[in-house]
């Protein structure tokens, strides 16, 4: 934190635009007084003698010493001049709230931004914003946040929230019942400091246990990666909600923040590679943060659930598989122990309907103790359905259930969770008991189970690095628009990717000789750097069974090539039958690096469109995981309708080779497509039948 200390833990705060009337300046002054800020508070106003009883200064130049941070609560033009004055006075940091800078898209907005950044560089002044809400640091009792703080105790907690949207900060801080905040940071347009810079600082803070980020764009992906790796090392999950995934949203992001939205699938692959937990919406973000309030993280996805309803147990079984949670049947020894107190339990014991003989005060604690001690589960959940103001039950009748769960959790090394089966409903009195015992309270059956599953996946031992093979980088001519199939496959073969035998020919006699040497049937393909997709132009002839068929196909190809410009030649390959066709490709993403895609290949790739993604280089085991994750390709490779299982080890080796090649040549490659890779039956290997490489322009 030392570099960002003036913003996150200031010792003196100047409020420019402080006022007695309702305004941002008044809200900040009132917050600091109510929170008990122990540093110096200097309101600045040219005409007021005092604000809320604190003596006022007429200008920044009149301050007794340079402040740690200046909250500039002024309109855009006055804010620019105030920042320049603050920087010149030696202020270490500032917050600008007003809009109208580069995000406005106007020449005047860009001029304002240039003036601010120039002053920041000249004086080394940190800046949060502009066009944001500022920063709230409950543990240091400091605030440059626009909203007034009324209850510091309720807002204080262990979640560091970093958001490029002020509205998201408002939404997340509106409900502090299940978790509070170590920081609320609204980064705005990030003219000087980015979300990544704030993440670097907050993950080092002992008051932060988990970080949450709302990103519209990642301005410094490399810095984000380093911060995520550091957070993983410290055992602090980082949960990321990324906006701008649709084409319309991406346009809105560009106009809103002055940044560009990253390519969503590639960015997701980057997050996964560096152990961030990506979520789809605010509800999922909230539930994962709530689940992270437990004393421990789940070591795996095996969850035991205690409930008081057979129907509820069946519903949870129906929902669990889609969430990534495993509800394994109860072990015989555990079942015997449960039965000895509760009576014979229905089903396979998980979820466990522990109502039994109706002695809840005996049955539930016993069930929770047994499952909390069981070696067969990584975590335990207890369904608790209620709501503040519930019209059909008395609070004192429900509170004992929370106390039972809290007592069991304190006696077990496993994480325990209260699970409200309806989203958005729970009792605040129960939540207080559970939080004190280190029990997370999640809301919604599907949402809660999915949140626990995401934490379990995060907590599992990460894959070990796999050092890429040391390969010499290729040096193709930079003027080539694409590297055609023959040259591309030669490069890939040198990196270890298996390719079929083939001959590049230029005359019909050469083609006939090549076919005789390779053996009929054969395939003819025209290859050219300027014709990347041969099939679309009818420049591929398949299953040529003899010399006569080859002559006819040769003549047809020559006719179709007329007017296509320079052609490298005609490729002669054996016609290979059987096997499963898959695609593997790599695309270089600016700021993210190379990302591999894998899925069903051949002519169906555009139709099906299902691919799994991984950021490169692949770690040990990731090629195998990539194959399994592409569900349709994985199903075909497993063998369907009597087909034999495919040679997955050879396919995984090919993916690792492609990864090594892409990493070694990342300096000049924009894209690599290997389509199809034909994977034969187990023990018979695989072959890359076609490939293309697109250099960076």
From the alpha carbons, calculate the radius of gyration and give it in angstroms: 31 Å
Question: Distance N terminus to C terminus?
Answer: 41 Å
Strand order of the largest sheet: 9-8-11-10-12-13-14
Give the overall silhouette.
flat
The low-pLDDT segments are 250-262
Question: Total domains, how many?
Answer: 5
Question: What is the CATH domain class of the largest domain?
Answer: Alpha Beta
Largest sheet: 7 strands, mixed
Q: What fraction of residues sit in β-strands?
A: 15-25%
Task: Tell me the CATH architecture of the largest domain.
Answer: 3-Layer(aba) Sandwich
Helix content: 25-40%
Number of helices: 24
CATH superfamily of the largest domain: Succinyl-CoA synthetase domains
What is the third-level CATH name, the topology of the largest domain? Rossmann fold
Structural class: alpha/beta
Global mean pLDDT? 91
Number of strands: 29
Notes on the protein architecture:
The chain has 697 residues and is an alpha/beta fold. It folds into five domains: 1-132, NAD(P)-binding Rossmann-like Domain (Rossmann fold), CATH 3.40.50; 151-279, 3-Layer(aba) Sandwich (Rossmann fold), CATH 3.40.50.261; 303-459, Rossmann fold (3-Layer(aba) Sandwich); 501-574, Dna Ligase, domain 1; 580-695, D-amino Acid Aminotransferase, Chain A, domain 1 (2-Layer Sandwich). It contains 24 helices and 29 strands. The strands form six sheets. It has a seven-stranded mixed β-sheet, sandwiched between helices. Helix 15 (395-410) runs parallel beside helix 16. The longest helix is centred in the first third of the chain and has 17 residues, at 107-123. The radius of gyration is 31 Å and the shape is flat. Residues 250-262 have low confidence and may be disordered.
């Amino acid at each position: 934190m030392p570099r960002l200390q003036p913003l996150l833990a200031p010792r003196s705060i100047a409020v420019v635009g402080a006022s007695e009337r309702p305004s941002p300046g008044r809200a900040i002054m009132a917050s600091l007084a109510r929170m008990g800020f122990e540093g110096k508070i200097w309101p600045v106003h040219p005409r007021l003698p005092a604000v809320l009883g604190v003596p006022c200064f007429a200008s920044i130049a009149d301050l007794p010493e340079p402040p740690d941070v200046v909250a500039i609560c002024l309109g855009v033009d006055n804010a620019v001049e105030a920042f320049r004055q603050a920087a010149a006075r030696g202020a270490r940091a500032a917050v600008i709230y007003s809009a109208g800078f580069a995000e406005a898209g106007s020449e005047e907005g860009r001029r304002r931004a240039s003036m601010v950044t120039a002053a920041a560089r000249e004086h080394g002044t940190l800046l949060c914003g502009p066009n944001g809400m500022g920063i709230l640091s409950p543990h240091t009792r400091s605030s440059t946040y626009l909203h007034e703080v009324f209850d510091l105790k309720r807002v204080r907690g262990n979640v560091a929230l970093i958001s490029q949207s002020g509205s998201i900060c408002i939404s997340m801080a509106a409900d502090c019942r299940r978790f509070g905040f170590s920081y609320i940071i609204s980064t705005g347009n990030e003219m000087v400091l980015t979300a990544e810079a704030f993440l670097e600082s907050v993950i080092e803070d002992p008051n932060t246990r988990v970080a949450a980020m709302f990103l519209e764009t990642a301005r410094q992906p490399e810095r984000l990666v380093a911060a995520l790796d550091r957070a993983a090392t410290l055992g602090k999950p980082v949960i990321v909600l990324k906006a701008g995934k649709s084409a319309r949203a991406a346009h809105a992001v560009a106009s809103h923040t002055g940044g560009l939205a990253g390519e969503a699938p590639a960015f997701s692959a980057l997050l996964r590679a560096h152990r961030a937990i990506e979520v789809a919406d605010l509800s999922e973000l909230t539930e994962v943060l709530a689940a992270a309030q437990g004393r421990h993280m789940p070591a795996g996805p095996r969850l035991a659930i205690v409930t008081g309803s057979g129907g509820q147990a069946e519903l949870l079984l129906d929902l669990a598989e889609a969430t990534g949670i495993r509800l394994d049947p109860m072990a015989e020894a555990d079942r015997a122990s449960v039965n000895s107190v509760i009576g014979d339990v229905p089903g396979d014991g998980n979820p466990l309907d522990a109502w039994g003989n109706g002695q809840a005060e005996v049955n539930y604690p016993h069930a929770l103790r047994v499952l909390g001690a069981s070696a067969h589960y990584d975590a335990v959940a207890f369904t608790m359905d209620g709501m503040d103001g519930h019209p059909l039950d008395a609070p004192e009748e429900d509170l004992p259930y929370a106390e039972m769960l809290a007592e069991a959790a304190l006696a077990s090394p496993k994480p325990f969770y209260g699970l409200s089966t309806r989203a958005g409903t729970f009792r605040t009195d129960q939540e207080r008991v559970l939080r004190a015992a280190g029990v997370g309270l999640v809301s919604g059956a599907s949402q809660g189970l999915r949140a626990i599953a995401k934490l379990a996946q995060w907590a599992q031992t990460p894959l070990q690095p796999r050092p890429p093979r040391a390969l010499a980088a290729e040096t193709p001519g930079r003027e080539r628009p694409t590297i055609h199939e023959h040259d591309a496959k030669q490069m890939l073969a040198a990196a270890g990717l298996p390719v079929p035998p083939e001959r590049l020919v230029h005359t019909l006699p050469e083609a006939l000789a090549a076919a005789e040497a390779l053996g009929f049937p054969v395939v003819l393909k025209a290859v050219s750097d300027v014709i990347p997709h041969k099939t679309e132009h009818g420049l591929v002839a398949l299953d040529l069974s003899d010399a006569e068929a080859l002559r006819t196909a040769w003549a047809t190809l020559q006719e179709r090539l007329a007017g296509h410009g320079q052609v490298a030649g005609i490729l002669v390959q054996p016609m290979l039958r059987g096997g499963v066709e898959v695609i593997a490709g790599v695309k270089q993403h600016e700021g993210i690096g190379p990302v591999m895609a894998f899925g069903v290949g051949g002519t169906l790739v555009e139709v099906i469109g299902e691919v799994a993604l991984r950021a490169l280089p692949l770690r040990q085991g990731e090629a195998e995981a990539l194959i399994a994750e592409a569900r349709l390709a994985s199903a075909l490779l497993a063998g369907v309708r009597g087909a034999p299982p495919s040679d997955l080890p050879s396919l995984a080796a090919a993916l690792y080779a492609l990864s090594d090649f892409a990493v070694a040549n990342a300096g000049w490659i924009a894209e690599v497509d290997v389509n199809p890779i034909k994977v034969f039956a187990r023990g018979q290997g695989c072959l890359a039948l076609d490939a293309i490489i697109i250099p960076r322009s």
